[in-house]
Amino acid sequence: MPLFLDSVLLFGRALRQAGLETSLEQTLSFARALDLVEVGDREQVFYAARSFLVCRREDLPVFESVFNRFWLGIEDKPTAQQLPLAPRHDLRKDRKLSVTYLSARAAASDTEVQVADRHGTYSAEEILRRRDFSRLTPEELDEVQRLIRDTTWQVSRRRTRRLIPARRGAHVHLRRMLRDAAKFGGIPPGLRFRDRKIKQRPLVLLADISGSMEKYSRLVLQFFFSAAQKLDEVESFVFGTRLTRVTAQLRQRNVDRALEDAANEIVDWSGGTRIGESLALFNRQWGRRVLRRGAVVVIVSDGWERGDVSVLEREMRSLYHRCYRLIWLNPYVGQKGYEPRVAGMAAALGYIDDFLPIHNLRSLRSLSRHLGELPSRRTRLPVSRAATNLL
Amino acid sequence: MFDSIDDTIEELSHLSYITDKGLATSLFLALEMERALFLEGEPGVGKTEVAKVLSTAFDTPLIRLQCYEGLDINQAVYEWNYPRQLLEIQARRDASGGLEHVTDDIFGEDFLLKRPLLKAIDQSHEKAPVLLIDELDRADEEFESFLLELLSDFQVTIPEIGTLEAEHKPVTIITSNRTREIHDALKRRCVYHWIDYPSLEKETEIVRHKVPGLSDRLTRRVVAFVQDVRRQDLYKLPGVSETLDWAEALTHLGTENLDLETVKTTLGFLLKNQDDVDKLRDRAAGLLREA
Q1: Using CB atoms within 10 A of its CB, is residue A151 exposed (0-12), middle (13-18) or buried (19+)?
Q2: Residue A363's CB: how many other CB atoms inside 10 A?
Q3: Is A43 at the interface with chain B, CB within 8 A?
Q4: Which domain holds residue B217?
Q5: Which end of chain A is more exposed for a tag (fewer CB within 10 A), N or C?
Q6: Could you tell me if A239 and A366 lie in one domain?
Q7: Most confident of A10-19, A267-276, B201-210
Q8: Which residues constitute the domain of residue A299?
Q9: What are the tens digits of pLDDT across the range A46-65?
């Protein structure tokens, strides 16, 4: 029996309690490895444990602190790297606040509460489709959320470089032909082909959840959830003053749990906006990992930038050149007389393929159609025309 | 194989590969326990180099599989030699004048083309070869699941021939630049190690070993400068290989002192992104003063 097996198993459990996905098999490998290192040498034991028990870079700091606590009894001292908690951080404790925020807000502004027709006759649904998200009553909100969840999503596809057998194709499938030939006395009975496999493009969603977007952000998350459920390879991020990745949370099946977990993950609900800095963080930390193989990027924001506009412009340029198509959804595009004059929006416009509205259900539906048939950039419409076309 | 962790560090340093205790521990254990070593890290920190230096240290062949999208079994494991098969069928038919036995054994080992993974488990090796699966993140998920199978028992099944098994399990190094997440199931079967950028002392030692032509003083200046550059907010930070390229370029220029002019003209060796170059041009003077 390996040395210290009991302690090693307990350590494995401590890691799992801290949120690492350490398997029993990994733990046992570590136990075996202890026979090979000098157990008196703290460093060797630490590195051996790390080699077997962690397999993601993100997990390294957690691992280190659990290791210290478990084996050395050292508690982490608060370090300078821990960010001070902003007052609004307390929002996290009150889970209901962010989740029920919209309905509470809608109720306050509408003194006459309309009773929406839940059976959704055609006209009622049509009205709902055109109604701006910011003017929904609580009942309508429920209905709209249901409709968003039921939306079917499709993202345009691309030809991969993997070859698969096909009825017709650009490549002759020699292996199949020779196997056929072996059966038919050396003469292949006909041509067989291979062709490139076709796959959905990765979709990257980035939503602005700052104060100016708060009327829309809840529904945008619904939209993200619905896309994450129905498509492969969806990455979701939200940002206000900083960037949060909510991909894992939105993959959960249960919508309420998914949205609640995502909401809890976000520290800066309805704060200020630093679009440029958030995109900079995205480009550096995540760009290389999620913008691959012809990804389609969708940004939802009103373009109300509180930070440096030149940063926003630089990061948009960088993002634009790294994806197949860059779509910007702005709730105010739908409104009469809106022009993208906000400094941030104006700076970003030059690097956007499609500038589309997202203020009501109808605009979401046309977005879902649009995503399914994205043309290549060569056929890109001038931004202003593209925007007015889809109003 | 190596005797201990310290021995690993020392043996590798004889071959000009400077490593720290973390990597040495992972490597030592991977070798002892016959596991694959999964190396992740930014480009240019010396992941591929580990495999090369191991093959020199053990004096065994290095078998390299470069990954790319669409990499399939035909490219990675084996392929049939179709032209030869066709010629053989033709020749036999001419000889016998009939269709009898013309296709016997055309799916035999004589017609098999061995690709890197099959070569690695080939029985003809006298001792374990080093198998390098480079930039796994570039391959697609389909290949990843195949690899998961291979790593568990190092055997390959070819329907027409049967199952081939390695006599000596190859020393396997897998690298990834993290352009996408590799599935945890694969990483859990391996010994995982994240290679960070080296510390100032380590990097100085590396440059000294690899670019002996550079004076001691200049080596220190160059490394200090690069370490400062890594603290800047850039799209792509320079790796150790960029440091080495730059250091070598400076020896060719006969540089004796690292001045602003030299830095500005040779910045292309360190930074490969125009935005980064522009940004650093403005800050170079300040960084030089600190370095």
Answers
A1: middle
A2: 21
A3: yes
A4: 200-282
A5: N
A6: yes
A7: B201-210
A8: 203-389
A9: 999 999 999 888 888 889 98
